[in-house]
């Protein structure tokens, strides 16, 4: 009797992880545990998030909606509570989805008193999840408590515990990001989340749904020992960028604005200096620290997967590994996640389906088809054999997991970035725009990337000859037809994926007619 079936769901999400940062993808960073998972599952190499930053991207992941439909467009923008999500749908199958980490879901303020504490943080929890422990950019009470129990003295700003130690030996010569935090590798936030997942898996025997969210490799870029010295900065390439910031700025008014903001001290979380204009050795060391944090997460994910094997649950658990968005890492003189570059939005996806139906696909690399973060929810629900809500903009990846290709599939990916600044109005004032005009939409296939701004000039990149997106061709008359073609494609996409609400229903003299159909 074959007991390889989906009984449990383990959805692992990391924060700010670039798609190429896997050793199985040919990168220098060492990720042996994720490589092993990929060899027993399917790796999607052309996978993209639908928006940035953290909160909006996680909303697209967990609701299967484009930002133009869910409208959670920035950290702090509330999410309409009428939408369903992967946790609420899983509850219909008897699961109690449990979260360790965070979702950064600002609560719908309608009906709440102005003094409600939920209106003082953007780190709310997606409805439907039972909270095991929160560890986010704003709250980590359980982790901080554990650190204190171990004898670590927390600074006044508790999150400063994640910063590198002052006067750390070798940091002055090698670079500031070489300094390790005071805690050891077994006491980090990464180890904390992994230990919670391990303990949950050991104890629970009924079918379970776990959403484990690791904050790393999100900045501050200070890795605990020994990960802080795992990668020699001398072995690391410099970012790809123009010869100077001024030349880079010439690509587009928005990039000019973003690069000005990047030069502000403290613009990159946990680094209270201008990261844009650092000397080369500092830049390489920051990248080395980023890779060290990635290897740390990989080691801890290995512990979680080993626990599944030790408890006999590996072949009954659907495992999904992905990220909310990616990281510029100095490319184009930028750090963090923003805008239209692939470095911000190209993310990893590995899925390990335990069923025998997936045996033919083990070790498969899907590099001929684009996938999107919004595909995760319909994939999980499809494998649960439950109905996929009409709300979902994504499509099930199940055919890829079973070794085939869908008859119909998208030929490009799309994402959006809303750069409005409701708190300080900086973008609005810089460009003399309304907040609703501070938005860009991106369509990208294997040949071109077209970026449409509501009220700023467009961008066009020929990815075949310019994969690093250095030359904007939007003003080149030779590409006028290409601009028109991709503008039409984008308009068709927006028309096809506009929020349905009840547009698929019709009240007739004989009653309600409801049609179910795919968008592709």
Automatic annotation (TrEMBL):
Top-level taxon of the source organism: Bacteria
Q: Which stretches are annotated as coiled coil?
A: none
| Cross-referenced Pfam families | Sulfatase
Enumerate the spans annotated as Sulfatase N-terminal domain.
7-384
User: Keywords, A to Z?
Assistant: Hydrolase, Metal-binding
**InterPro entries linked to this entry:** Alkaline_phosphatase_core_sf (IPR017850), Sulfatase_N (IPR000917)
Q: Which CDD domains match?
A: PMH (cd16028)
Q: Specify the protein name.
A: Alkaline phosphatase family protein
């Amino acid at each position: 009797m074959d007991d390889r079936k989906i009984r449990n769901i383990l959805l692992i999400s990391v924060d700010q992880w670039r798609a190429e940062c896997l050793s199985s993808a040919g990168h220098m960073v060492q990720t042996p545990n994720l490589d092993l998972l990929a060899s027993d599952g399917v790796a999607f190499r052309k996978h993209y998030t639908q928006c940035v930053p953290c909160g909006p991207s996680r909303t697209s992941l967990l609701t299967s909606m484009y930002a133009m439909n869910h409208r959670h467009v920035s950290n702090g923008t509330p999410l309409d509570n009428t939408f369903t999500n992967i946790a609420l749908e899983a509850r219909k199958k008897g699961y109690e989805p449990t979260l360790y980490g965070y979702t950064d879901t600002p609560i719908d303020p309608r009906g709440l008193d102005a003094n409600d504490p939920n209106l003082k943080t953007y780190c709310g929890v997606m409805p439907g999840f039972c909270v095991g422990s929160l560890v986010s950019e704003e709250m980590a009470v359980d982790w901080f408590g554990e650190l204190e129990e171990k004898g670590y003295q927390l600074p006044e700003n508790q999150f400063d515990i994640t910063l590198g130690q002052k006067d750390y030996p070798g940091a002055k010569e090698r670079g500031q990001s070489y300094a390790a935090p005071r805690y050891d590798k077994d006491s980090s936030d990464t180890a904390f989340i992994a230990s919670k997942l391990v303990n949950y898996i050991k104890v629970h025997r009924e079918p379970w749904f776990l959403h484990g969210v690791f904050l790393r490799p999100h900045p501050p870029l200070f890795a605990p020992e020994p990960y802080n010295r795992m990668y020699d900065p001398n072995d690391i390439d410099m970012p790809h960028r123009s010869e100077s910031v001024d030349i880079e700025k010439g690509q587009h008014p928005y990039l000019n604005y973003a690069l000005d903001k990047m030069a502000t001290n403290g613009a990159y979380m946990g680094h209270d200096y201008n990261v844009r204009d650092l000397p080369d050795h500092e830049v390489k060391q920051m990248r080395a620290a980023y890779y060290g944090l990635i290897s740390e997460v990989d080691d801890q994910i290995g512990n979680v997967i080993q626990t599944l094997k030790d408890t006999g649950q590996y072949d009954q658990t659907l495992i999904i590994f992905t990220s909310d968005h990616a990281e510029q890492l100095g490319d184009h003189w930028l750090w963090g996640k923003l805008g239209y570059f692939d470095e911000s939005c190209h993310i990893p996806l590995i899925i390990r389906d335990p069923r025998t139906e997936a045996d033919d696909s083990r070790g498969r690399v899907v590099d001929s088809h684009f996938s999107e973060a919004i595909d995760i929810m319909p994939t999980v629900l499809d494998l649960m054999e439950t109905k996929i809500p009409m709300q979902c903009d994504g499509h099930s990846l199940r055919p890829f997991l079973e070794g085939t290709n869908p008859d119909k599939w998208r030929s490009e990916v799309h994402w959006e970035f809303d750069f409005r600044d409701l708190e300080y109005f900086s973008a609005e004032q810089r460009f003399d725009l309304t907040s609703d005009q501070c938005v860009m939409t991106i369509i990208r296939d294997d040949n071109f990337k077209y970026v449409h701004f509501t009220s700023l000039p467009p961008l066009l990149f020929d990815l075949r000859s310019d994969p690093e997106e250095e030359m904007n061709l939007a003003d080149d008359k030779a590409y006028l037809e290409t601009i028109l073609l991709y503008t039409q494609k984008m308009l068709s996409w927006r028309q096809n994926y506009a929020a349905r609400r009840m547009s698929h229903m019709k009240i007739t003299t004989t009653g309600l007619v409801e049609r179910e159909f795919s968008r592709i």
